Predict the 3D structure of the following.
Amino acid sequence: MKSELHVPSDLKFLTIVENWLLGCLEVQLKESTDWSKQVGRLRLALVEAYSNVVRHAHKEQPYLPVLIRLELKERDLAIEIWDRGEGYDTSDYAPPSPVEKQEGGYGWLIINRLMDKVEYQLQVDGGNCLKLELTFPEGKKSAE
């Protein structure tokens, strides 16, 4: 299954983004995995990724759309979040220190802990792609 969403760079659209992603996946996976255990991690990773594009990559250009692509093959999920901002050099990232009261920098850490694989690519044509990958575990929801 493949799907994509073009959405404005505005946090008012965050609920639409979440509902689109989670709705597509629930339809495909609800019968084959414990969906209740997957929703929270996917929601948090998506919220972090989309809000970073809105607040940082498109900060000075809110009219630019965000493109989100979803691909599900069997149990393997790939989500691409495309922006047209200046980009971010991930080699400069330093995880927040537990002793310092740092306000930002947690998003990248959170996303990397929630997903199996995270890649960020600066594209030649000016677009940047954050790719999130996850393999869903097998196992149906137990009857309660």
User: Anything to note?
Assistant: The helical segments are 14-29, 35-57, 106-114. Residues 17 and 54 are 12 Å apart (CA to CA). The chain has one domain: 2-135.
